[in-house]
Write a structure and sequence with these properties.
Elements: H1 12-22, H2 31-58, H3 66-75, H4 79-142
Helix pairs in contact: 1-2, 2-3, 3-4
Length: about 140
């Protein structure tokens, strides 16, 4: 857990970027306002986490999951954010699934290439053995 309340604040660079993306061009924000938004965002995250944790505890789990967060948003009366969050979650899951499948395909390809290489090495070894045997046979015939 954090030792000081300041340890719970979100990074200023992140807050500044979010604020700039939310405001129209040409609108400036004071340092004091940015600091207030940062503290408010930190409090919101802590409150949402606490509410989500309550759902996990009710489910006799120690790990918060996306469903807990969505339920917490509804409990906190932020229903209008639930649908966009669900959409973002689905996009995230699809991306992760795609990455996982790509990794599997890459592993399969690597395994296949490794097997091919191993077969080639075995064939090369067999070829060398056959050549040696032929040379030995020729030497024996010459003798």
């Amino acid at each position: 857990m954090a030792e000081r309340p300041e340890d719970l604040n979100l990074p200023n660079a992140v807050i500044t970027r979010i604020i700039k993306e939310a405001l129209p061009d040409g609108v400036n924000i004071s340092k004091e306002a940015r600091s207030a938004i940062s503290r408010a965002a930190s409090v919101f995250v802590l409150y949402a986490t606490s509410c989500a944790n309550n759902f996990a505890v009710k489910g006799k789990r120690k790990t918060l999951n996306a469903g807990d967060v969505l339920s917490a948003m509804e409990e906190m009366e932020f229903q209008r954010f639930v649908a966009p969050l669900k959409e973002s979650l689905e996009v995230y899951r699809r991306e992760q699934k795609g990455k996982k499948e790509a990794r599997k395909d890459k592993d399969k390809k690597a395994d296949s290439e490794e097997q091919d290489k191993s077969r080639e090495e075995e064939n090369d070894d067999d070829d060398e053995r056959m050549e040696e045997e032929e040379q030995n046979d020729e030497e024996e015939l010459d003798n």
